[in-house]
Design brief:
Blueprint lengths: L15 E2 L2 H12 L4 E11 L2 E10 L4 E6 L2 E12 L5 E11 L2 E12 L7 E3 L12 E2 L21 E2 L13 E5 L7 E6 L4 E7 L2 E2 L2 E2 L1 E6 L6 E7 L5 E3 L4 E3 L5 E3 L4 E12 L3 H11 L15 H16 E3 L4 E3 L7 E3 L9 H6 L3 H17 L10 E3 L3 E2 L7 H4 L9 E2 H20 L8 H21 L5 E2 L6 E3 L8 H12 L2 H20 L17 H18 L3 H15 L13 H4 L27 H10 L2 H17 L47 H13 L3 E4 L4 E4 L4 E6 L5 E6 L6 E8 L17 E5 L4 E5 L2
Parallel strand pairs: 9-10, 30-34
Antiparallel strand pairs: 1-5, 2-3, 2-7, 4-5, 5-6, 6-21, 7-17, 7-20, 8-12, 11-16, 12-13, 13-21, 14-15, 16-17, 18-19, 22-23, 24-25, 25-26, 27-28, 28-29, 30-31, 32-33, 33-36, 34-35
Length: about 775
């Protein structure tokens, strides 16, 4: 990991609290190389409309006073702490010394004069590359117009989100609150100047949620990034639309004051990968690491959820007896939200009861959903009705009469990936004879459809026709898991052409999106081509699969960058839910919740849809603990949302008397913003099959405890406590304490550092040792 330093010429070898006369010098010196300065301001509002900004002083002053409308304001830089790498922790005090001020907020604004439209503004999980892309209006998941079909040069097209202006001279302003972001931060990367800037703030002050504002001049030669307390937006963003906000500024009284804490980084960055890596390092710098919370062990989550899937997701229907993912017993969706994915943890149970159910489900997929091209339909109703996922607009139907339906490329990538994972697991369980030849033929046809599409188009697209195999909608990273799927298929079927295509597709996605844009996009079935987390995590899956298949370290380097991008989608602090809300009542913690997309503005308990085991594999391969910490945060956030005995979650908001029947369920909303209205903040309702599947996959594919026996390396992912020690006989022992209210079966993965140099396969979890630890007890076991 390279080291980064401030562009300012500062002594970086010590950490000091600057003396009063040096505070302004530290901040001024950090901003000047960026052609930047800072001002300390009072913003006056009328309702939610900004009427006036007044500057109290600038960064060169260190303190200042302003007389305005009978009031006297003052600001002071209370502290400017320079950290060892040159970043700055800043504390600014604003005070109304005399008079009163109605509807006012205070702000620290950073002004940049060497600005260009090409600068990439990122507000984590909300704004990527300024969201400066063509827009489809019409609210949630708007229909695609005819112009988006069959266009190989289609630009990425977003839903109606906060964004900077696409063309010169149009207004260019973003107003968000910190709850709209996974990390309360504003940042930018300059490709021309090869520099980055990040300012992180506290989520809220005593006056409420703070604001994040970005505004460019009409000619785009200057820009201002502001942290505002309290935050006030003129318009609040929903799921692809806007409404007038009901934000209010503060009515200040004489002698009232507010302290605003900020963390600033200005640093050289050759490219977006370096910028993303730096952001991952700093995302918790101000809010701090969150402690481990002990709700329930992974095995308890698995056991309760497995019962829900067996009893509530498996249905005997007139047309099939199969595991459904979501939506009841009439609609089956392949991939994405769990179709032919929730069968995998059931197969891992390794018993005839589940073998039969799993085989039925795979049979259904193979016999009912595959089109003539080899690609699969993504949705089927009542066992026979194929549901188009992006049907052709009426105006195009007569021109393309042979196009009868459409399917997500993402779902097809999931299908091939999970076909191969099932086959590999059958073999590892010594049940290879259970793999039917027609299953393998079906998987090969799908792999060949991907390879053919790639060779013909150098593109996989976002939507395809399962019958002809034609790409209907181009662009996006909807096929982000396809390289992983082809890598597994290459090894399973011993077909080098699959691996070649996998590498080429992965390289293309990395260069076109992660490297050139700083995000990936269009992976979810209910968004446009918005930036989203699922494609980022999916591409990380692909890089680790290619590392496993080839042993080539270049895929590890790309995986590290992709993991940094994934961290921008993951909530980095614990949000304070409003009193009385469902999540407040259970004292829920939000660190580790994964934001869905720039359209669907909420966190979720896990990655849609994955255990995140590739983050563990990346940690194991690199030894960089931040990847394990990110994974542990994500696992914790899932556990927080699962309904358990004595801890209602999905039933908390609906008053369901039969709570016992809901144990193991969870829902996809961890809503910290008002994107769905303020009444939705912290609200729980219903359940989601894909979030339940996350818990099952985590319980199967992640070790509870990982250790390297020849080094002092011990990583605990499960919600237990563990430590190594030597007994009187010189034996190395492991002590495991279960502080939760639920019995645990903890999986232990131990190896040497040399063994860790070999890429980890997909069924190694079958070899991990299991240790039972009852609730509240401690067990000691020898490390052999």
């Amino acid at each position: 990991m390279r080291h980064y330093f401030l562009l300012a010429i500062l002594p970086l070898f010590v950490q000091v609290i600057a003396k009063a006369q040096d505070k302004k010098t530290i901040l001024d010196g950090a901003l000047k190389p960026l052609h930047g300065t800072a001002t300390f301001e009072i913003w006056h509002y009328e309702g939610n409309t900004l009427r006036q900004k007044e500057v109290i002083g600038s960064v060169g002053d260190g303190s200042g006073e302003l007389k305005s409308a009978g009031a006297v304001w003052r600001y002071d830089i209370v502290a400017a702490e320079r950290t060892i790498d040159g970043s700055i922790k800043l504390n600014v005090k604003f005070r109304l010394e005399k008079g009163v001020a109605k509807e006012a907020a205070v702000a620290v604004s950073f002004h940049f004069s060497a600005w260009t439209k090409e600068n990439d503004v990122m507000i984590p999980a909300a704004i990527y590359d300024g969201n400066r892309f063509p827009v489809l209006k019409g609210g949630y998941n708007p229909p695609y117009p005819p112009s988006m079909y069959f266009d190989k040069n289609l630009p990425l097209t977003f839903s109606d989100n906060p964004r900077l202006g696409l063309t010169i001279k149009e207004p260019s302003k973003i107003e968000l609150l910190t709850w709209n972001a996974a990390t309360p931060a504003i940042s930018y990367f300059s490709p021309a100047r090869k520099e980055g800037f990040i300012v992180i703030t506290e989520p809220k002050t005593k006056m409420g949620i703070s604001g994040l504002t970005v505004e460019e001049a009409n000619d785009r030669t200057t820009a201002t990034l502001s942290i505002v307390a309290p935050g006030v937006r003129e318009y609040a963003a929903g799921f692809g639309d806007f409404r007038k906000s009901d934000d209010k500024a503060h009515d200040w009284q004489e002698n009232e004051e507010l302290n605003l804490s900020l963390y600033l980084c200005a640093f050289p960055a050759e490219n977006r990968p370096e910028f993303l890596a730096y952001f991952m390092d700093k995302r918790k710098a101000l809010t701090g690491e969150t402690p481990q919370y002990y709700v329930a062990p992974m095995s308890a989550i698995f056991d309760y959820t497995r019962q829900q899937v067996d009893n509530g997701r498996f249905h005997n229907t007139p047309y099939a007896s199969i595991y459904f993912p979501e939506g009841g017993m009439h609609r089956f969706q392949l991939g994405w939200v769990g179709g032919m994915m929730n069968t995998y943890p059931m197969l891992a149970l390794n018993d005839s009861f589940h073998f039969h159910r799993v085989a039925n489900t795979i049979d259904f997929v193979v016999n009912k959903l595959q089109g003539k091209s080899g690609f699969f339909y993504g949705v089927i109703d009542d066992g026979s009705v194929m549901v188009p996922e992006r049907g052709l607009p009426a105006i195009l139907q007569s021109k393309y009469p042979h196009i009868v339906s459409s399917a997500m490329v993402r779902k097809n990538a999931d299908a091939l990936f999970w076909f191969c994972k099932h086959f590999m697991l059958y073999k590892a369980l010594e049940r290879e004879d259970s793999i039917k030849p027609e299953w393998e033929r079906s998987a090969r046809r799908l792999a060949e459809a991907f390879v053919r599409t790639w060779k013909e188009n150098r593109e996989l697209g976002q939507y395809i026709d399962p019958e002809s195999g034609e790409i209907l909608v181009y662009n996006s990273t909807a096929g982000s898991v396809a390289p992983a799927a082809l890598a597994l298929a290459a090894r399973y079927f011993n077909e080098p052409s699959y691996l070649q295509a996998a590498g080429e597709i992965a390289e293309s996605y990395y260069h076109r999106f992660t490297e050139q844009l700083g995000f990936t996009a269009g992976n979810c079935g209910d968004i446009c081509q918005d930036a989203d987390s699922e494609s980022a995590f999916g591409l990380l899956e692909s890089f680790m699969a290619l590392y496993w298949a080839t042993g080539d370290g270049k895929w590890l380097e790309k995986a590290k960058v992709e993991a940094a991008l994934c961290s921008t989608w993951t909530i980095s602090y614990n949000y304070a839910f409003p009193a009385g809300s469902d999540l407040y009542r259970i004292d829920a913690h939000t660190t580790g919740a994964v934001w869905a997309s720039t359209q669907n503005k909420h966190g979720a308990p896990g990655i849609c849809t994955s255990s995140g085991d590739y983050l563990f594999k990346l940690y194991r391969a690199t030894g960089e603990q931040r990847y394990a910490e990110l994974l542990r945060d994500i696992l914790n956030a899932h556990t927080e949302m699962v309904e358990l005995p004595g801890r209602p979650t999905v039933t908390a908001g609906v008053g369901d008397a039969s709570r016992g029947t809901k144990w193991g369920m969870s829902m996809e909303r961890i809503q910290i913003s008002d994107a769905e209205g303020k009444s939705a903040i912290g609200k729980l309702y219903g359940s989601n099959g894909w979030t339940e599947l996350n818990g099952l996959l985590m319980g199967v594919e992640l070790p509870g405890i990982y250790l390297q026996t020849d080094k002092n390396i011990l990583i605990v992912l499960d919600q237990v406590e563990a430590k190594r020690w030597k007994d009187k006989m010189g034996r190395t022992m492991l002590s495991i304490k279960n502080p939760t209210a639920y019995d645990a079966t903890v999986s232990i993965f131990q190896e040497t550092s040399k063994e860790a140099g070999t890429p980890l396969g997909y069924t190694e979890f079958l070899k991990w040792r299991k240790v039972k630890v009852k609730a509240g007890e401690t067990v000691e076991t020898e490390i052999i």
